[in-house]
Design a protein that fits this description.
The protein folds into 5 domains: about 190 residues, Rossmann fold; about 70 residues, Arc Repressor Mutant, subunit A; about 160 residues, Rossmann fold (3-Layer(aba) Sandwich), CATH 3.40.50.300; about 130 residues, PCRA, domain 4 (Orthogonal Bundle); about 70 residues, Thrombin, subunit H, CATH 2.40.10. Helix content is about 45%, strand content about 15%. It is built from 28 helices and 22 strands. A 7-stranded parallel beta sheet has the order 11-12-10-13-14-9-17. A 6-stranded parallel beta sheet has the order 3-2-6-7-1-8, with helices on both faces. It has a 5-stranded antiparallel beta sheet with strand order 21-20-19-18-22, with no helix packed on it. The structure holds a DNA duplex (15 and 10 nucleotides). It holds the Pfam family UvrD-helicase. This is DNA 3'-5' helicase. It comes from Modicisalibacter ilicicola DSM 19980.
Length: about 750
DNA sequence: ACCACGGCAATTTTT
DNA sequence: TTGCCGTGGT
């Protein structure tokens, strides 16, 4: 083909705004795209790739695009294919982990891994750690398994192997490092690779194999990374190593939406990128296509309270829109009732339920909301929650499957050696563990040795032999079967199905259904929509990729998407989504910002970013609600409005109350039981005894002094001078005033 | 092997 | 308040 000038591919740039165009058509080289919420980030990424292919003449083979979630990777691929109108087999689009996995699978020998290494998830990892602690008789009070796990993952994320960790003679740290070392040894022996290991191992693979590194550097002319603000130290190092001096790198991110610092994400990678990658071109996408300007103004004002930002101000060519509604419930039930009532109104106005989302800071908040939704017969769906492949029954089934592939997988063996119960008690398992440890062999080997030399005989010995025979039998039986048939067989013969069928309650039923669903998933898997399946056949060869898929892609809980449901989720899981109508519930000090994050300025800023993320999810209408009295950990707690509310410009806010109803008069004595039960109270009984000069507190305006008063009962009005807010007249029946 | 009880803590979550 | 964990009883 002849040279293509930009004019010939203008369709690619046609529907883009100037900033997007700049980002898409920038010459190859390093680029940082600061993409605000709703600014068409994915669009730019996808168009950029198309541009690189069509104008810069890069082969899809030379492009690597990295995301954080499988969902994002899928979406990117789909949209790219739609844009180009062709199917792209040999372009690498995937998560950090799936790409690392791919490298390790291809170069398992160079990576010093067994060919059939298995991926373990954090749940398996935790089990492994617990076992380790027990084996070594280490006090799990001083070394809580979670902390140990956190330590190990943390080290890996920083790229540190045990011998590289500086203990400075600290005994506690020393113990941690030793545990890390033991843990790693166990993984090596069982051919197990955890999530952090995938990344670290592939980094080492490239670092220690100059020829491999040269190969991939030559191959990938351009690397693209999405959600760059979420990268951790290891991912940054990985990217830098792979890019080398030659490749062009495009990273897209938003420092204002960095909400995963607590799990190792380093926002500062954005600045580091600008400094360490040569001649970085920075583009800001600030035009927003999602929200009304009222919502964007609120978001801008809120986030301006953070220091050290890269700087970005969202704007829209669209309408001002409705003000942001703030509702102060007198308790959490009242808050929930307000939300559900309002949703009903919105639905009557013509919104679909699925267009409405309720966001909250912590999962515990969902309960009251759910109860209210159920009571009012409003269909809803909770986003998040337990994933399919993380369910107990599924993990058990997968453990059997893993044993078929690899008898030395101790974690799996231990998981199912006595599930369903077959008379192998903790004592027996302990003996096996002891032996495995002292002789440095796997549990499977220890089992055989113990039965062989009579260490375990009688009842226990028989049970152990029976288990070993079961595994061998399953292996033999399933030879030549297709993947889903293998799983059906294993579910049946292992006794898992019966085990759950006999479980009392509806739980067992659900578990049996899940096991059946696993078979369906396997069938779908072999029918090959998943990338991992390309080469594998339908039978046992598909087992390994299927297990990897299960660990890496823990199952999207996006079922029932067709049902028209109100969407409930945490603010974290809302990132990346948008809804016409958004409620943010529990906007209270201590809850949001969460009390665990209020002390350190850095963490508080992350809370604020989380709020920013929440606000920018809303397209047309945003509601912020809070409760003055909330049941927390079984105790009624007085709550104050969140500081974030006060950081929003007042002229964008509108205080709402239920039509014509007084939700609560200002009562001096609040009997918690009474309040929780009463839906509405007529003002008059139990108004606070307020007097001129008295100090009062208002949830939104803070503290002030009563200057003046007029009227009586619920209509009574008082003039209050608030610190920093000026004088205001407030109706006693409406304003939530608390005497101090 | 299984269940019932008491003590205890209690963000956020992807891979 | 819930839910997890370890303990002790059957």
């Amino acid at each position: 083909m002849d040279d293509v000038s930009p004019g010939d591919v203008s369709p690619l740039l046609d529907d883009l705004n100037p900033a997007q165009r700049e980002a898409v058509s920038a010459p190859q080289g390093n680029m940082l795209v600061l993409a605000g919420a709703g600014s068409g980030k994915t669009r730019v990424l996808v168009h950029r790739i198309a541009w690189l292919m069509q104008v810069e003449r890069l082969s899809p083979y030379a492009i690597l695009a990295v995301t954080f979630t499988n969902k994002a990777a899928r979406e990117m691929r789909t949209r790219l294919e739609a844009l180009l109108g062709l199917s792209l087999r040999n372009i690498w689009v995937g998560t950090f982990h799936s790409i690392a996995h791919r490298l390790l699978r291809t170069h398992w020998q160079d990576a010093r891994l067994p060919q059939h290494f298995q991926i373990i998830d954090s749940d398996d990892q935790l089990r492994l750690v617990k076992r380790l602690l027990k084996d070594h008789g280490i006090d799990d009070e001083r070394y809580p398994p979670r902390q140990v796990q956190y330590f190990i993952s943390g080290c890996k994320e920083e790229g540190l192997r045990p011998h590289q960790v500086q203990t400075h003679g600290d005994a506690y740290l020393g113990q941690m490092v030793e545990l890390y070392e033991r843990y790693q040894l166990t993984c090596e022996r069982g051919g197990l690779v955890d999530f952090g290991e995938l990344l670290l191992r592939s980094l080492e693979l490239l670092r220690d194999n100059p020829r491999l590194l040269a190969h991939y550097r030559e191959r990938f002319a351009h690397l693209l990374v999405d959600e760059f603000q979420d990268t951790n130290t290891l991912q940054y190092a990985w990217l830098k190593l792979l890019a080398g001096e030659q490749a062009g790198v495009t990273v897209v991110g938003d420092d204002d939406q960095s909400i995963y610092g607590w799990r190792g994400a380093r926002v500062e990678n954005i600045r580091r990128f600008e400094q360490e990658f040569k001649n970085t071109h920075t583009v800001r996408l600030e035009q927003n296509y999602r929200s009304t300007s009222a919502i964007l103004d609120a978001a801008n004002a809120l986030i301006s309270h953070n220091a050290g930002r890269m700087g970005k101000e969202l704007w829209t060519a669209g309408v001002k829109g409705e003000p942001i509604s703030v509702y102060a419930g007198f308790n959490d039930l009242d808050e929930a009732r307000f939300i559900v009532d309002t949703i009903r109104e919105k639905v009557d106005e013509g919104f679909h339920r699925r267009e409405i989302a309720i966001l909250y800071r912590s999962n515990a908040q969902s309960r009251v909301l759910e109860e209210t939704l159920i009571r009012q017969g409003m269909p809803y769906r909770i986003y998040g929650g337990q994933r399919f492949y993380e369910r107990l029954e599924i993990k058990n089934a997968l453990a059997y499957l893993r044993l078929l592939l690899n008898r030395d997988d101790d974690a799996s063996l231990e998981r199912v050696i006595n599930v369903p119960a077959r008379g192998i008690g903790t004592r027996t398992v302990e003996i096996l563990r002891e032996r495995a440890r002292s002789q440095g062999v796997s549990l499977w080997q220890a089992l055989h040795d113990s039965v062989g030399d009579g260490t375990c005989k009688g009842r226990a010995g028989n049970a152990l032999s029976a288990f070993a025979n079961l595994i061998e039998r399953l292996d033999n039986d399933t030879a030549g079967l297709r993947l889903h048939e293998i799983i059906t067989h294993v579910n049946e013969i292992s006794g898992l199905i019966d085990h759950h069928r006999n479980e009392k309650g509806e739980k067992g039923q659900a578990r049996v259904e899940n096991l059946e669903e696993l078979v369906n998933a396997a069938r779908a898997f072999t029918q090959g929509e998943t990338p991992l399946m390309q080469e594998a056949g339908e039978g046992a060869a598909a087992l390994e990729p299927f297990l990897a898929e299960a660990a890496l892609n823990a199952g999207d809980h996006e079922a029932d998407e067709f049902e028209d449901c109100v969407q409930l989720m945490t603010l974290h899981s809302a990132k990346g989504l948008e809804f016409p109508v958004v409620f943010i519930a529990g906007v209270e000090e201590g809850l949001f910002p969460h009390k665990m994050s209020m002390e350190e300025p850095g963490r508080l800023e992350e809370e604020r970013r989380l709020c920013y993320v929440g606000v920018t999810r809303a397209m047309h209408k945003l509601y912020l609600t809070y409760a003055e009295l909330r049941r927390l950990h079984g105790k009624e707690t007085f709550q104050r409005a969140s500081r974030f509310l006060r950081e929003l410009p007042e002229e964008l806010l509108e205080e709402v109350r239920l039509r014509g109803q007084i939700s609560r008069p200002v009562t001096a004595a609040r009997s918690s039981r009474g309040l929780a039960q009463q839906e509405s109270v007529t003002a008059g009984d139990g108004l606070p005894t307020l007097s001129l000069g008295q100090r009062v507190s208002h949830p939104l305006f803070g503290e002030g002094v009563i200057l003046n008063a007029e009227g009586q009962g619920e209509r009574a009005r008082v003039q209050v001078s608030f610190e920093g807010e000026g004088d205001k007249w407030l109706v006693l029946g409406f304003a939530k005033l608390t005497p101090l």
